[in-house]
Structure to design on (250 residues):
């Protein structure tokens, strides 16, 4: 793993999904096989190493954020858009935590999305926000499938527990089921029931770039629209049966 400490020029950036996005790191140790960031971040960062084998640590992120927040119009900040804000290196550098302190001081609304149980470290900070939502990406109920596609993410069991703890703390939570990976949709919704305030569903995007990976795993049928639409239907049926709030993104 190549780790570089760098000075960022900007940390609070405009986003097409939320008002702003904030990425304390360039690169991601979790190394999800389907991550869209792997398509362009090597070129953007100047790294020659494969995605998942480098992280640039923006060591000035909290101080830079403090300055940018002084001039920024209040809006929702997405933490993070092209890396997991709680990837393993966060345990050492605590950039996500220190940036959240700055955002809480100015009471900017925040949406966090992660696959890591390290997020529970910051429950004390989440309670300081007037508006915050913490989401956990859970793509399947099958631990073996998750290990293939998301090699350094927390286990599915740990991620389910994260949602439970977040909700118990009185913080709004969501589960992001995307991209849809092989597993049992009904079992996944059963495990999410009572633990997520809402559920978002999305298929595998940029499919052409990962079809070879599916073939190597013998999962080519799971890379078809027929698979995605069947799973979507099964998820929706069980979510409705349980009276859970959800949104379909495809």
């Amino acid at each position: 793993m190549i780790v570089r400490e760098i000075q960022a020029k900007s940390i609070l950036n405009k986003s097409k999904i939320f008002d702003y996005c904030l990425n304390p790191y360039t690169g991601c140790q979790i190394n999800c096989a389907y991550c869209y960031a792997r398509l362009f971040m090597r070129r953007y960062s100047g790294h020659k190493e494969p995605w998942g084998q480098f992280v640039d640590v923006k060591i000035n992120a909290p101080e830079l954020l403090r300055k940018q927040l002084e001039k920024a119009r209040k809006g929702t900040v997405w933490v993070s858009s092209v890396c997991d804000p709680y990837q393993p290196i966060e345990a050492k550098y605590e950039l996500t935590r220190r940036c959240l302190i700055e955002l809480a001081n100015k009471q900017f609304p925040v949406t966090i999305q992660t696959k890591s149980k390290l997020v529970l470290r910051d429950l004390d900070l989440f309670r300081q926000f007037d508006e915050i939502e913490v989401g956990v990406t859970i793509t399947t109920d099958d631990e073996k499938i998750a290990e293939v596609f998301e090699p350094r993410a927390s286990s599915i069991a740990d991620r389910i527990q994260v949602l439970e703890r977040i909700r118990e703390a009185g913080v709004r939570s969501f589960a992001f089921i995307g991209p849809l990976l092989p597993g049992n949709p009904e079992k996944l919704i059963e495990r999410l029931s009572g633990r997520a305030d809402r559920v978002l569903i999305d298929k595998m995007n940029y499919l052409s770039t990962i079809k070879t990976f599916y073939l190597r795993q013998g999962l080519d049928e799971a890379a078809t629209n027929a698979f995605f639409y069947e799973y979507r239907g099964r998820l929706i049926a069980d979510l409705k049966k349980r009276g859970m709030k959800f949104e379909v993104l495809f």
User: Anything to note?
Assistant: Residues 120 and 162 are 7 Å apart (CA to CA). Residues 137-250 form one domain. The first strand starts at residue 2 and ends at 6. The chain has two domains: 1-130, 137-250.
